[in-house]
Design brief:
With 106 residues, the protein is an alpha/beta fold. The protein has 6 helices and 4 strands. It has a single domain, classed as 3-Layer(aba) Sandwich (Hypothetical Protein Ychn, Chain: A), CATH 3.40.1260.10. It has a 4-stranded parallel sheet with strand order 1-2-3-4.
Length: 106
Protein backbone atom coordinates (compact mmCIF):
# COMPACT_ATOMS: atom_id res chain seq x y z
CA UNK A 1 0.00 0.00 0.00
CA UNK A 2 1.18 3.47 -0.80
CA UNK A 3 -0.10 6.18 1.51
CA UNK A 4 0.35 9.69 0.19
CA UNK A 5 -2.84 11.47 1.21
CA UNK A 6 -2.79 14.13 3.91
CA UNK A 7 -6.41 13.28 4.74
CA UNK A 8 -6.42 11.86 8.26
CA UNK A 9 -9.94 10.43 7.86
CA UNK A 10 -8.87 8.39 4.81
CA UNK A 11 -6.17 6.75 6.87
CA UNK A 12 -8.13 6.21 10.09
CA UNK A 13 -11.19 4.83 8.30
CA UNK A 14 -9.66 3.06 5.29
CA UNK A 15 -5.94 2.50 4.95
CA UNK A 16 -5.06 1.68 8.56
CA UNK A 17 -7.85 -0.85 9.11
CA UNK A 18 -7.27 -2.49 5.74
CA UNK A 19 -3.52 -2.90 6.19
CA UNK A 20 -3.94 -4.13 9.76
CA UNK A 21 -6.67 -6.64 8.93
CA UNK A 22 -4.91 -7.83 5.78
CA UNK A 23 -2.07 -9.05 7.94
CA UNK A 24 -3.88 -9.91 11.18
CA UNK A 25 -6.70 -11.84 9.47
CA UNK A 26 -4.33 -13.58 7.06
CA UNK A 27 -5.87 -12.08 3.92
CA UNK A 28 -2.31 -11.63 2.68
CA UNK A 29 0.90 -13.30 3.79
CA UNK A 30 3.00 -10.17 3.48
CA UNK A 31 1.85 -6.55 3.74
CA UNK A 32 4.04 -3.56 3.02
CA UNK A 33 2.99 0.03 3.61
CA UNK A 34 4.97 2.88 2.10
CA UNK A 35 4.44 6.35 3.50
CA UNK A 36 5.08 8.86 0.74
CA UNK A 37 4.92 12.65 0.83
CA UNK A 38 2.38 14.35 3.11
CA UNK A 39 1.62 11.12 4.97
CA UNK A 40 5.20 11.11 6.28
CA UNK A 41 4.74 14.52 7.86
CA UNK A 42 1.52 13.32 9.50
CA UNK A 43 3.27 10.21 10.83
CA UNK A 44 6.07 12.27 12.35
CA UNK A 45 3.74 14.77 14.05
CA UNK A 46 0.56 12.90 15.02
CA UNK A 47 0.76 10.65 18.10
CA UNK A 48 -2.41 8.72 17.21
CA UNK A 49 -1.00 8.05 13.75
CA UNK A 50 2.17 6.75 15.40
CA UNK A 51 0.16 4.43 17.66
CA UNK A 52 -1.61 2.98 14.63
CA UNK A 53 1.74 2.43 12.90
CA UNK A 54 3.02 0.60 16.01
CA UNK A 55 -0.06 -1.66 15.88
CA UNK A 56 0.78 -2.47 12.27
CA UNK A 57 4.35 -3.28 13.18
CA UNK A 58 3.26 -5.57 16.02
CA UNK A 59 0.92 -7.37 13.60
CA UNK A 60 3.81 -7.87 11.15
CA UNK A 61 3.10 -5.15 8.60
CA UNK A 62 6.32 -3.79 7.07
CA UNK A 63 6.38 0.03 7.14
CA UNK A 64 8.61 2.14 4.92
CA UNK A 65 8.93 5.84 4.15
CA UNK A 66 10.39 7.70 1.19
CA UNK A 67 13.71 9.23 2.22
CA UNK A 68 13.63 11.96 -0.42
CA UNK A 69 10.24 13.16 0.79
CA UNK A 70 10.96 12.78 4.49
CA UNK A 71 14.21 14.72 4.05
CA UNK A 72 12.27 17.47 2.28
CA UNK A 73 9.82 17.63 5.19
CA UNK A 74 12.66 17.37 7.72
CA UNK A 75 11.14 14.31 9.41
CA UNK A 76 13.48 11.42 8.51
CA UNK A 77 14.93 11.14 12.02
CA UNK A 78 11.48 11.19 13.63
CA UNK A 79 10.23 8.42 11.36
CA UNK A 80 13.27 6.27 12.08
CA UNK A 81 12.75 6.78 15.83
CA UNK A 82 9.31 5.18 15.57
CA UNK A 83 10.74 2.17 13.74
CA UNK A 84 9.94 3.06 10.14
CA UNK A 85 12.42 1.92 7.50
CA UNK A 86 13.30 5.20 5.74
CA UNK A 87 14.78 4.63 2.27
CA UNK A 88 14.62 5.85 -1.30
CA UNK A 89 11.55 4.00 -2.53
CA UNK A 90 11.35 4.65 -6.28
CA UNK A 91 13.42 1.61 -7.24
CA UNK A 92 11.95 -0.39 -4.33
CA UNK A 93 8.38 0.15 -5.59
CA UNK A 94 9.37 -0.53 -9.19
CA UNK A 95 11.00 -3.84 -8.24
CA UNK A 96 7.96 -4.92 -6.23
CA UNK A 97 5.69 -4.19 -9.20
CA UNK A 98 7.98 -6.16 -11.52
CA UNK A 99 7.86 -9.06 -9.04
CA UNK A 100 4.06 -9.11 -9.23
CA UNK A 101 3.14 -7.20 -6.06
CA UNK A 102 -0.23 -5.47 -6.12
CA UNK A 103 -0.52 -1.82 -5.24
CA UNK A 104 -3.26 0.02 -3.39
CA UNK A 105 -2.93 3.76 -3.06
CA UNK A 106 -4.58 5.98 -0.48
Amino acid sequence: MILSSADKVVHEELSFPYAFNSKKQGWMDQVRVILWGPTEKMAAEDRKFQELIKAWQVAGVEVYACKACSDNFGVSDELEKIGIDVRYVGTFVTEMLKEGWYQLTF
